[in-house]
Each structure stands twice: as C-alpha cells, then as structure tokens.
Design goal:
Length: about 280
C-alpha cells in the first residue's frame, strides 16, 4: 500500500506526477527533494506537500520516484540503499533504461526497484510547466528485471493518473525509443540547424510545415546529453537507418520510387494518429 511518496526531482515530470496523483485521489503525503527554488515553486503549485533532504524523505517513503536527469538518477541510485525502508519501492522516469536498471541491481539491496519511463513531456521544463493531465493517454513503460518486480499498487496508480502501462525489457525499450523518441529529436534539431545555416533571410517564406517539424528543436541539449550518452549504440543504429532512407530519397528524386515512401509514411502516420485518438 502506497501511503507516502518521495519525488526526487520535482520539475516537469516529478511535479506533474504529484499533481496527477492528487487529481486521482491520492490521500497520502508527497514529499519533494530538489533545490530550494524548485521545491518552493513545487509547494506553490501544490505538486508536493513538504520539502525534505533526500535522507529524510527516503526514510519515510513507501514509493521513491526518481524524476531527475539520467546522470543524476544514476548518482542517486548509488547513494540510496542505506536510506530506504526495506519495504519501499523505487522507480524512475529516465528516458533510457538499460544503464539505470543495471545500476539499480548493483546498488539497491534493501528494497525493490522497477524501472519506468512515462512517454510524456513538453519542450518547456520546470515545475512551472507541470500539469495534472500530462500523463493522460500516454504510454508508461515498465522495465522489470523479473515479473516479481511489478508492483500492483504502483501499476494501479499509473492507470489512475491516466497512463497505459506497457512492459518491456530494458534493452528492448532503449532500441524502440531510439526510433520513436530519440531519432525524432535529432531529426528536428538537424533540420532546424540546416535551415538556419543555409537560409539567413526570408524565414517569412515558410509554411506551418517547418514550424511543425522543428518543434522538438526547442528542447535543450542539457536535457538530451545524458540520453545520447546512455543509448549511443541504439541511436547510432537509428541514425544509420534514417540516413540510408534520406540517401535513397535523394537518389530517386526523379523517379516514381518515392511514391512508395510517401505511401508507407502516410500509412504509419495514420496508424499513429488512430492509436493516439483511441488512447484519449
């Protein structure tokens, strides 16, 4: 039974998790662990009920939610074991999973760990951008090392806050998101950088397509640095496949072979939109 939650990191994801729990009827206490300015903002938003240092928050929590950048999640996992209650569950929101799951197995011996990744976010960061509905209709990937890691109480709350749990192996998760999340970010960034380098004037001569396809380029490198560093091999594979597709398109600009690519692309987008509509 989850009665007290410690959110280590109360920015966009951690803050939204607290707000979503409260909207779903969570009656326990939510404690925030972060910088003084961040926890002050989180308290003002109502995302947390109290702010405490990590040692105090972890010592009284049934659920410890690591909603930090990946590098800091790894660092917290190295320090957490002496602080936790033996019956506590630790989970996380890291965008890559393999290194986090390995670190948890190596450093957490006194409590349970369940890797997690809510597929939700915004270009804006910080608790100021947090919202209770951030997880509505989103996929929440869980990466247990064994079936016994799947905590039914936590999964029930994932569903209550509007998300859809999906269970994957950590390595498979990282391969999948290299195509569904990491590649789109790099494509958007590369497109915006290419246009910026080659078109210094007349940006007014652009339709909504450029704005739509470069939306993700607003994301900061600081957020993505750890993602790229902890999923390098899978991302290299996704980029290699994408570059090959671009080269194929470049080589066939004057042929009818691109008709097949347009049809295949439209079919995928239709599936994505139907899936998203069904989830909402």
């Amino acid at each position: 039974m989850i009665g007290n939650v410690a959110s280590v990191g109360v920015g966009l994801i951690g803050g939204s998790f607290g707000l979503a729990l409260k909207r779903a009827g969570f009656a326990g206490r939510i404690v925030g662990v972060s910088s003084p300015a961040t926890v002050e903002a989180a308290l003002a938003r109502g995302a947390i009920d109290e702010a405490l240092p990590l040692a105090e928050a972890a010592g009284q929590a049934d659920l410890i939610y690591l909603a930090q950048p990946i590098g800091r999640i790894l660092d917290t996992l190295r320090r957490l074991d002496p602080l936790v209650r033996p019956d506590a569950l630790v989970t996380d929101a890291g965008s890559t999973k393999r290194e986090i799951v390995i670190a948890a197995a190596a450093h957490l011996t006194r409590c349970r760990f369940l890797g997690g990744h809510p597929m939700a976010g915004k270009e804006k960061r910080g608790v100021e951008a947090a919202e209770a509905g951030l997880f509505d209709g989103c996929t929440w990937v869980l990466t247990p090392r064994s079936p016994g890691d799947l905590d039914p109480d936590f999964i029930e709350w994932v569903v209550k806050i509007g998300a859809r749990p999906v269970i994957l192996d950590a390595a498979e998760h990282d391969r999948v998101v290299s195509f569904t999340s990491h590649l789109p970010q790099l494509v958007s960034t590369a497109l915006a950088a290419t246009v910026g380098e080659n078109l210094r004037e007349h940006l007014e001569v652009a339709g909504p397509g450029l704005a739509d396809t470069t939306r993700l380029a607003l994301s900061s490198y600081g957020l993505w640095r750890d993602i790229l560093a902890t999923n390098t091999a899978a991302i290299e594979g996704a980029l290699t496949a994408y570059i090959a597709k671009l080269e194929h398109m470049r080589d066939n600009l004057r042929t009818r072979r691109l008709e097949e690519e347009f049809a295949a692309a439209a079919e995928l987008v239709s599936r994505l939109r139907a899936q998203r509509s069904a989830a909402l």
